[in-house]
Amino acid sequence: MNQVVANPTSSAPHPGWRVALPALVLTLVTILLLFRETGLAMVDVWAHNGTYAHGMIVPPLTVWLIWRMRDRLALLAPKPGYLAVFLLAAAGAVWLLGEVATVKVIPQFALVCILVLAVVAVLGWQVARAIVFPLLFLLFAVPFGDFTQPKLMEWTAKFTVLGLRITGIPVYSEGQNLVIPSGSWSVVEACSGVRYLIASVTVGTLFAYLTYHSLRRRLIFVGFAILVPIVANWARAYMIVMLGHLSGNKLAVGVDHLIYGWVFFGLVIMAMFWIGARWREDELPPTEPGPLPSRAAVRKDSAVWMAAAATVLVAAVWPLAQWQLDRGTVASVSQLAPLGPIAGWQTTQPGVLDWRPRFENYAASTQAAFEKDNGVAGLFIGYYRNQDQQHKMITSTNVLVTTDDPFWAKLGSAKREIEWNRQRLDVRTAELRGPVSARLLVWQWYWVDGRWTASDFLAKAYTVLSRLRGKGDDSAVIILYALPSRTEQADTILQDFARAAAPAIENALQQTGQAR
To answer: Using an 8 Å Cβ cutoff, are 494 and 441 in contact?
Structure first.
């Protein structure tokens, strides 16, 4: 009589998960503790910035996307992926550079990458490929996208002007400010549509993953999820101005236009999903699971724990390196070294030049007005030392003028080359409109560890190099501004003042930097 031997079924979970899953959970929790400040900074943005409130649901959605695949994942063999540990080291280095440069979005993206690579390191590449979308979906948790705001505001203003003119309504525009016969309108941050865009891309990407299986259809739908909210926001802005105009400014004013905007956006997104669902692809039939590996083929438990330990140790290097760099913090500075005399120019009362750029959280600053013949020029210097996420020079909140300023408005910006202390220097230029239609020409650039630049990117790079060399992060923003006089244009006044003031400004910055 033949004896029947019971064999394990091919649908039984792989035995390696009994060790791999606890090791993964312990690894991820440890990494979150090591990088807790970065993680808490993300949570703070989710809680206090409506644009990124969706970040709260991204981690739970990621867990849910993986959980719905649990039956298929249970059949895979978790095997440590040691190559991911080296990639994690690179992500950690990027995190450190972002912290040194005080660009908070870089450490946040790096933290997400570290978490994703930790999953690969402990579970292996085969498992990671099976859950690649849920892992990458975590990137939507990073508060990212504000950089698009100025361009979106510019496009919205231009489309609104174009729509009004096509409709036959006369309109006068300066930058993001519009004037029509029934009143004045401004395209501010809330009108940029960046909230609609970020929400649409996040939800649209998830919808494309769940609805389609072919990469082509998924990419097409994500493309529409980017394009539709931009165009819809243009139409929303135009319709709000038209509602205000036709109702004698009784409708679509104040908070109403924001409510109307979200209602309109909701209808547009619902229509986009309804149309997209018409081309949905049916669920693919489940593939037959392969044979269960024999116990001899299963990796030893120690290999998984070694991979987890290596991942944690490599991740811990970077917070330790940051702590070491922060130990080099020097004494704060309370005031700038005196400028001294500027040849041919005398200090004077600001008069109409009583304007102050909206740079905040500096360690020290100075502002003064100078006069020569019929020309008057203003100077502002904001000095930064021991910068962190709350006190840094380059940030989206440090601007020449805010969009809600009751007196000043930015009309345009450009770049130009000037002569500065016997060298050529590129600077930013901007034109501001002030009270009684006054015009102000502004030049702006940065000083970092003796280097001059008008580029935010280069200023950050110079700051990183200076800190890594142990020379601190002393930086300054230099802003010159002038009104056109009766005999001279503002550009000529600023050129003359820049040539005369360059030695005094550079000397004051160097003396302040040396006073530690």
So the answer is: yes
Euclidean distance between CA atoms 405 and 444, whole angstroms: 19
Q: Which amino acid is at 227?
A: L
Burial pattern 290-320, b for ≥16 Cβ within 10 A else e, equals eebeeeeebbeeebbbebbebbbebbbebbe
Helical ranges in 212-255 per DSSP H = 215-246
495 or 297: which leads in pLDDT: 495
Q: Is the pTM of this model over 0.90?
A: no
Q: How far is 300 from 284, CA to CA, in rounded Å?
A: 34
The reply to whether 260 and 386 lie within a common domain is no
Report the domain count for the chain. Answer: 3
The rounded mean pLDDT for the chain is 86
Task: State the Cα–Cα distance between residues 392 and 314, nearest whole angstrom.
Answer: 29
The helix-helix angle for 194-211 and 149-167 (nearest 10°) equals: 100
Structure tokens at 407: 């007196």
Tokens 């702006």 appear where? 444
State the residue range of the domain holding 403: 346-514
Contact between 336 and 366 under an 8 Å Cβ cutoff? The reply is yes
Residues 305 and 393 in one domain: no
134 pLDDT band, cuts 50/70/90, is very high
Find tokens 């999820």 and name the residue.
225
331: which 2 tokens? Answer: 């004494």
DSSP 25-86: HHHHHHHHHHTHHHHHHHHHHHHH-GGGGGGGTHHHHHHHHHHTTHHHHTTS-----THHHH
Residues 448, 451, 453, 459: is their CA dihedral positive or negative?
negative
Please state, in angstroms and rounded to a whole number, the distance separating the CA atoms of residues 177 and 411: 8
**Start-to-end C-alpha separation, the chain:** 93
